[in-house]
Amino acid sequence: MDISTKEYAQLVKQKSKKSPIVKNTVLAFVIGGAICVIGQLIMNGWGAAGLDKEDAGTATSCSLVFLSALFTGLNLYNKLAKYGGAGTLVPITGFANAVVSPAIDFRSEGFVTGMAAKMFLVAGPVIVFGTLASAIYGVVLMLMP
């Protein structure tokens, strides 16, 4: 089949399914909000267990990372992500998922060359640019009178 680039683009446009933007946006909002509500409930639980606000926040972060990693390992987080889309990218749970998913995918290649080497395949750039941004921000704050 010999078709031009323009004809190919028209064919792709014709065959492509329209994305339900409003539905996806609402689902992302609801799922992301639900994850945040769960995080708040966990934080309230740690507070009720006797932790002060700062320690309860730390324990909540650890709990959310653990739950996200567990649900990723059980393939439940990915199913939720297919349904909730961008709502599952709530920073801490999405980051934990981004670290655990490649580790699971590459575990067959071995502990060091597979899992450990590929674990930060997705999350690595986030760490690098987050660290760089915080360093720049720190320098800017230091130079401000």
Describe the structure concisely.
With 145 residues, this protein is an all-alpha fold. It has helices spanning 5-15, 21-48, 53-73, 76-84, 91-105, 111-118, 123-143.
Task: Report on this structure.
The chain has 7 helices and no strands. The protein is an all-alpha fold. The protein has one domain (21-143). The longest helix is centred in the N-terminal third of the chain and has 28 residues, at 21-48.
Task: Give the helices and strands, then pairings.
Layout: H1 5-15, H2 21-48, H3 53-73, H4 76-84, H5 91-105, H6 111-118, H7 123-143
Helix pairs in contact: 2-3, 3-5, 5-6
Features:
7 helices, 145 residues, single chain
The string of secondary-structure elements, in order, is HHHHHHH
List low-pLDDT spans.
none
From the helix content, strand content and strand pairing, which structural class follows? mainly alpha
Tell me the helix content: over 70%
Strand composition percent = under 5%
Tell me, what's the shape? extended
Largest sheet: none
Instruction: Indicate the mean pLDDT.
Output: 88
Number of domains: 1
Q: Tally the helices: what do you get?
A: 7
Radius of gyration: 21 Å
Number of strands: 0
Distance between the ends: 67 Å
